[in-house]
Amino acid sequence: MTEKLINSKPNGVFALILIELTLVLGIFIFIMGAGSENVFGIIIGLVLSIITALAHAGLKVVKPQEALVLTLFGNYTGTIKEPGFYFVNPFSVAVNPANHTQLGQSGDVSTKSPFSGMKLSNGNDVNLEIGKKQISLKVMTLSNSRQKINDCLGNPVEIGIAVTWRVVDTAKAVFNVDNYKEYLSLQCDSALRNIVRIYPYDVSPNVDTTGDGQADEGSLRGSSEIVANRIREEIQSRVEDAGLEILEARITYLAYAPEIAAVMLQRQQASAIIDARKMIVDGAVGMVEMALERLNEGELVELDEERKAAMVSNLLVVLCGNHDAQPIVNAGSLY
């Protein structure tokens, strides 16, 4: 389906004036015919009144950044995108299959009417469907609900995304899919699962996230920009036929699933402790080497191998210990 733009000038004001004048004329002819008992005048007045009443259905208002998709007896006639007050064929019908669908910031698709939850005096639910037929061309944000997805290592993670999108082809959005808003929401969920399962939550060895056959350091936590771009491209490829453009996709929430969060926290803490210990040991060894070199250069004291080993042991215990060392003063001889 190809979008056809209706580029006619906004002629609604002129048409409205003409319709109202015709309506007044029809009423006047009807009254005059009824007063003179002229059947022909009565019929003419009724016909003009009915025609003008039907003509009011052809008056359409299009606001900025909105579009009106029109069909006539089941055939697509065109789309009005320029703002203004228009008069179109009164039998034309504006089509918007997603006029009752709202994508809330929670990401849930809601098709309930604004009066849902209200009840009549007899106890029945109110079932009024109110929605506008105009299609919004504004930039909108879909914040999909958090999903639990297994990463490439099988660890369950919870992730949420915010997708910025807009309608660029109204004909595709209306006629190629049943409901373009619901379609977008479902495709966001599917694309998110396809991309997340490629990456580990954190950097892991022997994991190829780019598909080139070489292990890399890609991860959901460390490569959020790359992951978001891949999610956007994946969604765009899926909603192209629906006439939608995905401007941006951002990760809004990322965490391990609650059932493994505590275990993964212990793992991270253990890794941090090991890294810290390694750094402390490396620094202590460097300080011991420096101390021995300074003693040899200054010839302050001569130590044999056994005394050097004892001094190295004592220094490492002092530098690598968790608590402050308690000094012991030796007042006697070293030998």
Give a structural overview.
- The strands form four sheets. Strands 2, 3, 5 and 8 form a four-stranded antiparallel sheet that branches.
- Helix 1 packs antiparallel against helix 2 and helix 4 packs across helix 5.
- The N and C termini lie far apart (99 Å).
- 18% of the residues are buried.
- This protein is an alpha+beta fold and 335 residues long.
- Helices cover 41% and strands 19% of the residues.
- The chain is rod-shaped and about 140 Å long.
Describe the secondary structure blueprint for this structure.
Elements: H1 12-35, H2 39-55, E1 59-62, E2 66-72, E3 75-80, E4 84-87, E5 92-94, E6 102-103, E7 109-110, E8 135-136, E9 140-143, E10 147-150, E11 156-167, H3 170-175, H4 180-196, H5 224-239, E12 244-256, H6 258-298, H7 305-320
Helix pairs in contact: 1-2, 4-5, 6-7
